[in-house]
Q: What sequence folds into this?
């Protein structure tokens, strides 16, 4: 079986401060792990992190345009120039609050790749969809929207499964629920490319913390986590980073 390097990604959302940048970079410089660690702070804080470090930096969103009259937007090249090597696309908050749909997410992912950024493509089901037993159907639709047209993205992206009902709610999918969806994603991806399906990292997001991460990371198809609230606390986040095993 392919060895996939766990990725532990922090999504600070619209939170953080220069003090947190300092505290997090100090804390991360003191831990030793072979896992890949990624911090996605608000863009303004990217420059506050040291240029050379063992962890990576990313954006939380990117424009689907290259440049021009797009007030408030930031391009993939700009993120790259600011030190990012990853960018989150399609986070459920972007989809719910700013109208990002699958077509937009695909366009953003392609822009990211053209600027040498790795897109972390997020999707998940709502509580109503889960209760109606539509989870796999919804996930397959999201996957098809991105990868059926562009299977080459498999080699250059990360998938984040984030059940919407578990984001910021304190409610986590059980390791079994998460594993079932991750396994489904991998099997579905195999329809496009069997080799890439074994290589692609599928990370879980939804109220991950230092207590529930051990059981999640023990599942064979869970290759790390996208961490929101718990990534704002240095001790919590470093504990999660140290828990994942490769
Ligand atoms: C997220 O924002 O991607 C997330 C998973 O948040 P939280 O960990 O707070 O649920």
A:
């Amino acid at each position: 079986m392919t060895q996939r390097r766990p990725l532990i990604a922090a999504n600070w959302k619209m939170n953080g401060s220069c003090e947190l940048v300092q505290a997090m970079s100090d804390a991360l410089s003191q831990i030793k792990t072979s896992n890949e660690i990624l911090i996605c702070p608000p863009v303004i804080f990217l420059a506050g992190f040291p240029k050379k470090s063992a962890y990576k930096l990313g954006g939380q969103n990117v424009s689907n345009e290259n440049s021009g009259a797009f007030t408030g937007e930031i391009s993939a090249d700009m993120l790259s120039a600011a030190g990012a090597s990853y960018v989150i696309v399609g986070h459920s908050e972007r989809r719910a609050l700013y109208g990002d749909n699958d077509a937009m997410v695909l366009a953003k992912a392609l822009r990211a790749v053209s600027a040498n950024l790795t897109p972390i493509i997020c999707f998940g089901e709502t509580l109503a969809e889960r209760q109606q037993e539509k989870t796999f159907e919804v996930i397959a639709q999201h996957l098809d929207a991105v990868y059926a047209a562009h299977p080459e993205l498999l080699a250059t992206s990360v998938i984040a499964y984030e059940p919407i009902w578990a984001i910021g709610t304190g409610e986590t999918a059980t390791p079994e629920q998460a594993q079932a969806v991750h396994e489904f994603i991998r099997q579905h991806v195999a329809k496009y490319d069997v080799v890439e399906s074994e290589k692609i990292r599928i990370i879980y997001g939804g109220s991950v913390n230092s207590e529930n991460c051990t059981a999640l990371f023990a599942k064979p198809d869970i290759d790390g986590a996208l961490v929101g609230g718990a990534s704002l606390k240095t001790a919590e986040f470093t504990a999660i980073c140290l828990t994942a095993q490769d």
The chain has a mean pLDDT of 95. The chain has ten helices and eight strands. The two ends are 13 Å apart (CA to CA).
